[in-house]
Write the structure tokens for this entry.
Amino acid sequence: MSAPGSVVLGLIVPGLPHPLLAPDASPHWRRIRDAYDQAAARVRQAVEQDGADLLVLYSTQWMSVIGHQVQADPQPVWTHVDPEFHALGSMSYKLRMDADYAAAYAAAARARGLSCRTVAWPGFPIDTGTVVALSLLNPDNRLPATTTSCNMYADRGETVVLAKAARDAIVQGGRRAIAVAVTSLSARMHTRPVAPADDHLSSPKDEEWNQKLLEILSEGRLEDVAQLARTVAHQAHADQKMKAIWWLSALMDQGNRLRGTVHGYGPLWGTGAALVSLAPAATEHGQHEFDEDGVERFLGDAEVLQAPTARAPGGAPGAPAMERGLGRAGPSEVPPSVHVPAPARATAPARPSSAIPTGAIHTDTAPRPVGAYPHARRVGDLLYLSGVGPRQPGTDAIPGGPIRDAQGNPLSYDIVAQTRACIENVRRILEAAGSSLDRVLDVTAFLVDMDRDFAGYNQVYGEVFASVGATRTTLAVRALPTPIAVELKVIAAAGDVDVQKLATGG
Amino acid sequence: MSPTPAQSGQPAQPGTIVAGFLAPHPPHLVYAENPPQNEPRSEGGWEVLRWGYEQVRQRLESLAFDTIVVHSPHWKTVTGHHLLGVPRFRSLSVDPIFPNLFRYHYDLSVDVELAEAIAAEGADAGLVTELMRNPDFRVDYGTIVSCHLARPQWDRPIVGISSNRAYFSFSNEVGEQEMLALGRATRRAIERTGRRAVLLASNSLSHRHFTSEPAVPEDMTAEHPYSHNQYRWDMHVIELMRKGRCRQLLDEMPDFIEQATSECKDGSLTWLLGALGVPDYPATVHAYGTVIGTGNAVVEWLPPDPAPGVAAPGVAAPSVNAVGGAA
Ligand SMILES: [Fe+2]
């Protein structure tokens, strides 16, 4: 049984009606239907083993222009005919929607600054993709569901925020959800009829990209696919810019911490249809791809790119975690960044024997940077840390208290506690990078009130660093970016470097 | 069962297009009118455009015609051009984008014989065409809005033609050639079947939308062109229509589509101009107005040489009866 308030399974499924209406008209369509049946079995398994109790869909076939819409009719009934594939037959449905969840989802989206509404009008035209996916994945209406529109103007920021709203509502309701992206990989259909048995990918470049994406997905690297979306959209016929993948990854973890299974892939009327399941995994694969265009922020949520696991239930701001995608350069320029997740238990990581990848280092164990910089960066044998203050990772709380209140009025604070917290954060970053405090070579300390704080700071510093022998400079500055009294700037030897040899140049 | 064109043979008189209209389909215009078929109620709004449609209705009262052919951007097909091919459709149309405004109970008949003739002429011209024979099919809301506004009596059969995605699948230039060919095929089919047809091209002009809606959708203080650029483009293409310079309009159409995000990319207007033989005579602009920022014009082309024996309303000098909508 999975924890409540979580996404227990993610699915990517195609939305064309062929596997539902005419699976035996073509071996290609049969293959996709068989894969759909495997995905349905995976859904049943999630119900039985993980206690899944909700299906949340996003369909690229349901377009909207005024924000997003969420389906909230408890029991939509219709006989649906696809506008293009009407000759394949009609799809009669009686679905089961979770109106309460849909309302919570839409409310969470509005709370995050999006335009979003539920729709529950009888006869509302539910899109083919939603009908196909729910008919094949949830034929007995065992799970209640809802489905989300694809806003034609929304880009990554807005789509990611929408997914976080879906997650807020899952957390709020203590649900165990299955998230379903109803999308093709490539979406280019045939412009002239083909015999069903001769169905094929309508474009070789689409086929090439689909294969690459499937390889990445089979490794559970969903966020890497999300990061590649814009590149794919430029080079091949991505389905609605792959918005559904942005949504799915943001809803699941945005961190490649998944196990991927490709149930099947093939052509559906020229499009690339794939069925992929993604289950939460204990380990992450690291991030290998990133969005070269940079990330966008939707103005309604300044923290759009934070890892959803660190967000407080209900979507309240605060509890921030690492920002992703910032401070990164192109793969051709520097080696990839390392994103180190917080360890499950508070044990120091083993010092790696092999070389640590150079480049930017981010960790969930240290406080979120307040700008576009990594926690640390390795250059050659040295680790350069960004300025580190006392804020607590995850909560931003300041041990010893902030130096002023929100209105700027001075407060009493404890410099000893702040200095200890600073050094602790330095330790966490160094250990995340495979190094340690005893390898620090140089420290620059910044105090906002030298007269008041030097003694307390100096005492704590001595306790930790007296035996290390790092050089040190202490400066008084007028202010630091957050209401803290002390910040440290550190240079250290990397963990796999012999400090003695480094010292002697050997 | 309607006889096929082949079975019915040549008509006594060759058919003709008695009028063609640019007849955009914002569901807001039906919502604003509060017809009995539509569930939501409103306090009005978008009057200038609705007055323009009033002119269309009056014109149709004065014309003898037996069928309405409508090309709608909201029946989107990739593999060819599809045509309604079932004699009658009766159902509820709910706009997937503005379900709060448009939930319309329709009951309409289809001129299946003409639809089959257009499909056959199109196929002869090398186009992919397909009849839609599924009786459960729900007619798209663009078709319904344009037909309702032009002829709310629903007393003539219609032919509904889908919007092929040729512009999207290939390019604006390819799309234009495809739609001109479909327009010519439509005209040949009308002539061959002896129909007196009215044509409706159901698209807006500039088409970038606002992404939010006022609390009261018909609050006209919120209504204005999305951008000055869109407005300038709309005025330019309207001016070309008024001056009978449709060849130039077609030449500039790819730019218009890209620079004003025009719904002409869905092909309806180009289809109409193709069917009308690319008019070099002036069009009458009955109205221009915006709907959630998109530019919409109600425009009429009366071919100058209607079939003999028909009371021809004089081809008016270019005129604009009403322009407005921008708050
Ligand atoms: Fe439209």
Remarks:
- The longest helix of chain B spans residues 172-193.
- The radius of gyration of chain B is 18 Å.
- The pocket of fe (ii) ion is lined by residues B 25, 73-74, 142, 204, 263 (CB under 6 Å).
